[in-house]
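fyi for ur records
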Amino acid sequence: MLIQSMRTTHLRQADLNLLVVFTVLAEERNVTRAANRLLLSQPAVSRALQRLRDMFHDDLLIRSSSGYEPTPKGQRLLHELETSLPRLDRLLSGGDFDPTTEEASFRIAAIDHACHVVCPLLSPTVLAPGVRVSFTFLPLHDGQFEEMEKGRLDLMLVADDGYAPAHFAKEVIFEVDFVCVVARESRFSGALTLKQYLAADHIGISILGGIQTIPEKRLAAIGAKRRCRIWLPYHAAAMQSLAGTDLVATVPRRMAELEASNPAIKILKAPAVLGTFKYLMSWHPRMNTDAAHVWLRSTIRAAGKRISIV
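which gave:
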């Protein structure tokens, strides 16, 4: 447990106001300017600096020709406070997350489809001036729900296939339909009937538990099953593997459109039974009110709205 692993004597004796004084003094490098920002007298700021030195057993800030300069320990302390003070202030005030003043790193699990259509819309946000957040996208796998439970994932971008635990929070971010992708020289053209689809050999995309969840469930609902000869973990790899074969890849339309210029393939209308499906962002409900997570969901939601009109 956290408290059991810490020595709490110093924490109980610490004055958090001193950390604010240190941060301002380290930024201003001048007692007079720091005192003006803090609405304190210069002697009060000097006394606070001495108490800080006693607390950390280090000079923290030393005089130089250009003003105060941080010691190595002072630099490390300032770096830590730049992240922790805004978070602490937000916890106390209940304020919003500000990506230009706080650092955050979000871990998102998604298949290549979501990465291809969502990531390009997130990149401008991450690279905007002053933004201090980062996104790490990880592949979906059979242990993803456990990782979400344990806090190792912040968010999942998944199809609404019913496999996510019922207590996870969910929100639709966009909707998409399927198309069938085949080799340019394939005997199929225009649209595939259900009879043709079931008679064909397929290349499947393993999403969860070794199956491509939405197509398999839609077919199972009418008592049908397709014959997959090859399974791959990525839609893009499946489409790249079609040339010279009679295989059929069932792919979300937006993913297929990214490969539309590939002269080795053609895109066909899928059987109506496959229909459309909703794409969700899903998260653990303990994150519902976390300000940084609220910002993350808002950012993903905005990207989803742009996808819906692309």
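The chain has twelve helices and eleven strands. thats all i got for now
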